[in-house]
Amino acid sequence: MVKKIAATEELKEKLANARANSDAIATFEPRATRAFYDAYLGMIIVFLSNKCMFGFPSEIGQGLAGASVKDLAEVEVTPSGEGLHWKTLDVDLSIPALMNGIFGTKKWMAELARKGGNSTSNAKSEASRLNGTKGDHPGKEIVLATDEDEV
Q: What segment(s) does the record annotate as region Disordered (predicted)?
């Protein structure tokens, strides 16, 4: 019985320390306070504890692409404020990762990059045509030292 009480007290102490650490981090690391889906913009909008906000297109968040407006609108902020959760989609995204431009796993990000590189637009086509008219880029001039240049 004494061991059980000691273990309970130790667990309570660890929990209190974890909460204190979390509170300390929250003072200098922004946490999400509110989030919603803006169907007009197709964006997830997140409000932060430092009075800033950011948003990202739902289509680039792993697990959100192709989801219905109803499902996207059910975004919740996790109790710690460090994540976003969609229960119906079974999707969780990290706020710090999102703020660093990481919208999913490495595999997901590689797929996004591949799609981005393959995209075409009038501006991209025109830039390519203009670049092609310039010919090869000149090489770097190579200067060889001579005996006279040595000190």
A: 114-151
The pLDDT value given to residue 148? 65
Neighbour tally for 112: CB within 10 Å: 16
Rounded distance, CA 10 to CA 18, Å? 12
Query: Could you report the per-residue pLDDT of 43-60, keeping only the tens digit for each?
Result: 999 999 999 999 999 999
Cβ 50 vs Cβ 41: under 8 Å: no
Phi, psi at 121, each rounded to 5° = -150, 165
31-118 is classed CATH 3.30.2020.40: yes
Measured between alpha carbons, how far is residue 103 from residues 37, 95, 115 in Å? 16, 10, 14
| Torsion, CA 86, CA 90, CA 95, CA 99, rounded to 10 | -100
Q: Beta partners for 55?
A: 45
Which residues neighbour 42 within 8 Å (Cβ) at sequence distance 6 or greater? Answer: 57, 58, 59
- Alpha carbon 140 to its chain centroid, in Å, reads 39
Domain ranges of the chain: 31-118
